[in-house]
Amino acid sequence: MKISPKTKIFLVLGIFLGLFLALIILLILPFFGQIQENSKTLISQKNKLVSLRQEMKNLEEEEAIYRQKQEGLEKINRLFISAEMPINFITFLENNAAEEQLTINISPAGFQKAGTDSWSSLAFQVNLTGNSASSLRFIEKLENSPYLVEITNLNLSRSSALPVSPEIAFPVGASPVSASLSLRVFAK
């Protein structure tokens, strides 16, 4: 069978067109698919980068706020005594009693865990002997102390029958006063 030159041209063009389409389908379309996939990955990574930068900015702002508030937080933390070792508070009481020329007897009365209250607390029973003005100054210093203290009970009694310490000076005509304080001190 003889093929005409016109048919040969169409046949060769058809074969080249088929090869060209096969080349496009097999090589170029997967390449474009890979480009699309890489573009989606790039967009996803850019979005992650933007969100990470925003998170870093937020963290830096929060850190700056924390640094500003840290001094206040430290002051608040110093308001609470150590539940295990309330030595600083007891020393504070003894020093103030000595400054006011009072004899002092401190007895721990118990520990209350945070339950109904917001914070844990320690209870102390403090007995003072001295003149009334000194006792009131001691109570004022206690109220203005750097600790969170609540005076839950206060009893003052004047009596000449109280034992008087020789180092305590009383004004002429003044009799000693006995003060009994029940304290609740908030703890860490």
From TrEMBL:
Residues 42-79 form a coiled coil. InterPro entries: Transl_elong_EF1B/ribsomal_bS6. Keywords: Coiled coil. It comes from the Bacteria. This is Uncharacterized protein. It comes from Candidatus Nealsonbacteria bacterium CG08_land_8_20_14_0_20_43_11. The lineage of its organism: Bacteria, Candidatus Nealsoniibacteriota.
